[in-house]
Amino acid sequence: MKDVKNVSRRSFLKGLGLASGGLIIASGTTLFVACEPKDIVEFNPNLFVQLNSDGNLILVASRSEMGQGVRTSLTSVIADEMEADWDRVSIKQAVGDAKYGDQNTDGSKSVRLLFEEMRKIGAATKAVLITAAAKKWEVPASELRAENHFVIDNNGKKIGFGDLVEIAKTLEVPKDVQLKDPKDFKYIGKYLPSKDVANLSNGSAVFGLDKRVDNMKFAAIKRCPVAFGTVKSYDKTAALKVKGVIDVVEIPMLRKPFGPLGGVAVVATNTWAAFKGKEALKVEWDLGDNNAYDSEEYMKQLTANVHKKGKVAKTVGDVEGAFKKASKTIESTYQLPHLVHAPMEVPNAVVWVQGNTCEVWAPTQEPQRTRTEVSAFLETGEENVTVNVTFLGGGFGRKSKPDYIVEAAAVSKAIKAPVQVVWTREDDIQHGYYHTVAAQYMKGGLDKDGKVTGWLHRFALPSIASTFAPGTVDPAPFESASATNVPFEIPNMQVETGEAPAHVRIGWLRSVINIPHGFAINVFADELANEAGVDPLEFRLNLIGSDRIEETKNEYKYDTARLKHVLKQAAKNADWGKKLPEGHAMGLAVHYSFLSYVASVVEVSVINNKVKVHNIHSVIDCGLAVNKNTITAQMEGAAIFGMSLAFYGKITAKNGAIEQTNFGDYQMLRMPQAPKIYVEIVENNEKPTGVGEPGVPVIAPAIVNAIFKATGNRYRTLPLKDHKLV
Amino acid sequence: MTKLKINGEIHTIDVDPDMPLLWAIRDIIGFTGTKFGCGKGFCGACMVLMDGKAVNSCQLPVSSVGENELITVEGQTENLQLLQKSWEEHNVPQCGFCQSGQLITATALLNGNSNPSEEDINNAMVRNICRCGTYPRIKKAINHSVELKNKG
User: Fold this and answer.
1) Where residue A38 falls among pLDDT bands split at 50, 70, 90?
2) What is the CATH architecture of A208-289+347-422?
3) Closest by Cβ to B87, choosing from A201, A272, A343
4) CATH class of A307-340+434-723
5) Scanning every residue of chain A, which has its alpha carbon at the shortest distance from the alpha carbon of B122?
6) Is there a contact between A316 and A491 (Cβ–Cβ < 8 Å)?
7) Residue range B2-71, CATH number
8) A19, exposed or middle or buried, with CB in 10 Å at 0-12, 13-18, 19+?
9) Which ipTM value was assigned to this complex?
């Protein structure tokens, strides 16, 4: 590999001033580690740990880093159980390979699923090192302990981990090991800084877009403006006249969940020439069936579908009967538009196909799926495809789908050279996997005391399942779950779904279905509170009702006491009910997603019909908080992400084509609008649960509820920009 | 031939004079710390310092740079290094992709204003998007740098 530097032993030692050495993280590529075999002995007790005889410890991160801090979180768990010195740890990014277990980095589940496994790996490595010292000193292992990269006996005699490598290599790694008492955690549960923070602040971290390979070409692809349209013909004359353009090749469309959309690629000696060549390229399209997609008309259709009876997804009691008996019923309809991920780093990939082998360097959340898709495209075995995972400049679900990587494989195969395919920002906005568009109808019944006796939630939204099984019109079970598992103690409840055919690729975007459901449920609960004349906090706590464990199909129990606790804490931290300046008001929302409990209280002002968010108080209960630094950062980021979608998020389609183009018309929140964000992490020793996503769904409804309090205006559609509030 | 002075070194390159500085820096000269985010000057990921001021390198043809001195995130200039240290101390980056641009804009701010108010910071940093939402930490890190500067 070009970017792994061969550093002579002498210059290396001089550079780091170490007594012995041989390992370096190549400059500019902290994801790859090179070894100089001389003198250094390696101990690899398992796939995730490499301890060198100089004491340097290389821990493998199997999940992709996209800003959620997963490289640090996962490896710090190993280091903690191992009693390693964190300063001696460097992190190596795993290639895509099933031997590492599932590497799919989405669903806020990396730490949740790998925590115990990483602990066991660390503990087993510690145990074998202790055994090695016992053997060397000829004492029972029970008289020894490990501490900060040393094994120590009762008299304080010490030996460094590195010095135990030779013996440890000869020993068997134990399978059953004793894990630490959580009260003894050194790194877990602390505010541990990211290992990557320096390289992410000085330009040396290598993202996919920064990857360079000798003789690498650059390519941009012109795709049909309408999803699944195809190339009729193209004229490459003008494109080939652009200085730097080398070639023009057609890319096939693969109608698979993660297949390329197809199109025509312009290959050049630099990115800009590829972009210019793409602009000059003339393509005639067969626009296909989605040509008529008009998102405004489509919303009318979805809305009609929720204004009539749908398919029942859940029913408790007799909701129609409850409405008949109610002293008051209210109805509301909520409409939310498509969104697109727009990570700061556009989709891109470097691929080099050589005969039947292939090497990939890409910012991907799903390296194994990438391997499968690329090898299927090339009709070669997976063992012939190497997928190197670079840093991701944001993912948010977009980079779970390796269509852009298969594109690069197609271009590399055609031109017989390594190539970097780079999407323009316009490509990213217009050819994405869109967050669903949703219509939701809610009806509630109140008795004479203001208690909710009936709850009907009907929704229609194109399903993610349509991306896997074209023609799907009904939601997948997981897309109903965040509506059916609403934790309200209401005797009569019903959830229904309406049909919604998809006309663009539908994908998952940070917090997924919880965005529409979290919005409708939280805003409607606020409307009911207002109708009942009860304070929204008190009303919501009553709605959640008694402390109880709701039935779940997994080991994680849905605990209403934990849900109420985050809400109470958020309200307490925000000083809910305090007197606020003229035009200011607070709003709240609470939502359970990715097995975590989150509540936010926001303070807004609406002055001259312009909304400003001043403060956000968020509380998360994600079980044992593995890295509080990361969790706090994720909750801050989720608040900003939630504000962006509340203020600006809207993708529309006309004649099948996406109308937005770039950050000028698909806007993001910027610094002057960023509020003060306060995060509390609930302390407990429950199993760790999701962090990256659950902070998002509460933000938009909390803002809408606060605006209502401030103005008396209820906004049931987003974004707020459409209401001229921003 | 175009001559560009970047991080104290002269680079002579043979490119179309219309090529935006961003691509000359990234693809021709090979400094990849400066990022492509939107290509239209909306997001600030491509910011570089030109004579101490932050410019969107995606909007600037190489022919218009002339003899102006350029500094990228890999370069050395007092305020940049000070800010980078504060970025580390406050754990600013999440994905980190936009941070080169954020740091360059912040450097230009401190170059021109040794004691910026919150409004000054907002007015300067409005040019940069962070999709991960690190704005609160960026603000803290800038303030921290200002404190260090004023102490030192």
Assistant:
1) low
2) 2-Layer Sandwich (3.30)
3) A201
4) alpha beta
5) A672
6) yes
7) 3.10.20.30
8) exposed
9) 0.98
